Structures
1.
Amino acid sequence: PPSIVLILLANQLGVGILGLFAGALLPGLMLSGMYVAYVLGISALKPHLGPVMPPEERTLAGNPSLGTKAILSLILAFMVFLVLILRGASPGTEGALAFALTWSGAAFLLFFGFMAATKMLGTEVIVSIVPTIALIVGVLFSIFQGIASPSESGAVGVFGALILTVLNRLVDKQLVKEGADHIQTEWQLTPKALRAAGVSTANITILVMTLLFCSSFFRLMFRELGGADQVSDWLSSVGGGKWGFVLIAMVAVFLLGINLEFLEITFIVVPIFVPAMQELAFTDAEIIWFAMLMAVNLNMAFISPPVGFSLFYLQSVAPPEVKTADIHKGAIPFMVIQGIALVILGIWDEITFASIRLFSDIDI
């Protein structure tokens, strides 16, 4: 979570958000792994692009192996979790328990390792990592256990974040007492901060609701004027059946993503695809698979020059010597990676189906 794109796609495609969340886990991990492989590969081939950190920054409390152990413990925890799921733990209570146990074990391993090295550093690292993981687990747990809907889980996340904000100040004070000189103990939950968060939330909500209203109006008029039937007939009559439709849809979304934001594509273009998908008799699992392809394709739109909004965000925080052209060039390899991932997920749809089977109770 929050995976806003998936929530909006679920609304437009008429499928459950839980199914999209479950279907996105393995594709998301695959895409992350491809990013990591690229970064490691390019750093090995061109060391100047990814210089090694100085030993003093990689060494914790004089113990060079401590950082490696910390990373390995997290990898081990994740592998244990996957093994438990693959060996039959259900995506419900057993899956949640497996997740909680493995990551709790990793947290304890990190805790005792760091505490053995230095009390202050151990405390600082633990209070930085564990609350974040706990918040993510809490939100996911509330969704997968049916305690809250994906929309309601946002309130769970906000409530947990407020609690962590209060606890963070108490922990920061304790760290300062122990000698930490780089921590500010000022109260962060100020009226000004709350007001800024409220204004930002209101702006985004108004934007999304306005687009939702306009897209609903467009969809209604488009259908009443017969446009939906014509597009549906044309798309469903394209040679290749479902595969032909998916290919045309992905090419169209990619081209539109160069100049449009994902909200416009999601609310205006996706509804045009729905009648054709119904005509071609897409199953729920196939709709989720199509949504995964859409999500990766829209991911490319985030960084596609010249209107990739993520590129502008990067430009706003980049040093002055980093030019817009440099950021655009840097985005191209990641667009290629996303394109490869799109092809892989398109050809091997079983990746998405396996993710649905592993992490949800949906029958496919």
2.
Amino acid sequence: MHRRPLTDEECGLLFKSLVRLEGRKFETIALCVVPNSTALILLQDTPSRANDDFGKVIDKVKTKVGRAIMGKTGERFPPFKDESYNRILRDQEEFEEHHLQVLEMPAEAEIVDDPDDYPHLWIQPVEPRF
């Protein structure tokens, strides 16, 4: 959840920053930024990156984007909450459930009827490696 709803421009800024993680440290499977929340499914790119901490990487993105938003709006605090909820998906069923939740976020937020019409949604047709 965000502290306040993001504008479409702010959603785009956060989305672009999170998409940049693709292929660097992680493989992005699903990403959606809607005004009230953000969801992300990542896979570690290689075993050599096993010590990378998802939370630290996400916090860096939130800090950078938060500062940019504060600079534009004059707000004293970034629009993101300090905490993130990280979850390790353990099996195919859990993966499919969360993947579907991310896909349906724009419709659930009543932004679009068809997720394909939402510009801040990234879905990779990749099978997880369980």
3.
Amino acid sequence: PLFVALGAGGQARRLHASTTHAILRMDVYAFGEPAVLQAAA
């Protein structure tokens, strides 16, 4: 699913990144135009 969003969503910005127990990772991305991404942050 991430590669579909990367190909279709335009520019990306990472909103959150975390690691739990040194192996589980959670990243949240917003896709869209730069002005929209600024409003999401």
